[in-house]
Specification:
The structure is a single chain. This protein is 19% helix and 37% strand. With 236 residues, the chain is α+β, with helices and mostly antiparallel strands. Strand 1 (5-11), helix 1 and strand 2 (38-46) form a beta-alpha-beta unit. It is globular.
């Protein structure tokens, strides 16, 4: 079995905290204190005036000394918005799958990551606000991509769906929900100041041994709380 990885998913809300202030350094500090190996980020800006023209994926990768990939879902004049994956290990390839649906475009960023012990595929997903569209995006785009991967898989992100939903049950047929290893007192990820919903997830293929799961409470750098999982791959 390879060494354990620390994997985080975090919807950073463009670096804007519950106090309404934009502070990407604060976001970076939250991540640094968790010492991650892999970070899945949603609601990431690049070169937008509202967030000081920052390339947020690149800036957070610099703070954490990581490689990164950024997937655009919406383009503006100027700038863009999407998902990002940061990795302590080299990212070997990137694909960005656009999830269409009216005006509410979403995306699923897919990367291949090479570690000293094994390679794996990582998906960073941000689903929409309508259940029917979430199910369709999973069935038509995400699940076919999962089935096409032969090796270890990590799938995480902001699913905008509760654990009992049809969308989450769809995924449980293919992957294990890391929440089963929860060792913390907090069980919900949103909203950050008074969390009452679990809508952020990290799923792993069956070849992973999940050693720990925690939602990090009392962190108001975003409207979501970060979720951290420690897992080791037992082989493909």
């Amino acid at each position: 079995m390879g060494a354990s990885l620390i994997i985080i998913t975090y919807n950073i809300q463009h670096g804007r905290g519950m106090d309404g202030h934009f502070d990407l350094e604060r976001t970076g500090h939250v991540l640094v204190t968790l010492s991650p190996d892999i970070v899945l980020l949603q609601e990431v800006d690049c070169r937008r005036p509202a967030t000081r023209m920052s390339c947020q994926a690149r800036e957070l990768a610099r703070i954490l000394n990581m490689d990164y990939a950024y997937g655009v879902v919406k383009r503006y004049q100027p700038g863009s918005y999407g998902n990002a994956i940061l990795s302590r290990y080299p990212i070997r390839s990137k694909k960005n799958h656009i999830l269409t649906g009216g005006d509410d475009r979403r995306c699923c960023l897919e990367v291949k990551i090479k570690t000293p012990h094994y390679n794996f595929t990582c998906f960073n997903l941000h689903l929409g606000l309508k259940s029917a569209e979430r199910c369709r995006h999973l069935e038509e785009v995400v699940l076919p991509r999962l089935r096409a991967v032969s090796g270890p898989v990590v799938l995480g992100g902001d699913f905008n769906a509760r654990p009992e939903s049809a969308e989450i049950n769809l995924l449980k047929g293919y992957l294990q929900d890391s929440f089963a290893a929860n060792s913390g007192e907090c069980c919900c990820t949103f909203p950050a100041d008074q969390p009452h919903s679990r809508i952020d997830y990290i799923f792993l293929s069956r070849c992973w041994q999940i050693n720990d799961y925690r939602i990090i409470p009392h962190t108001l750098a975003s409207d979501h709380l970060p979720l951290i999982v420690k897992a080791a791959c037992r082989g493909s």
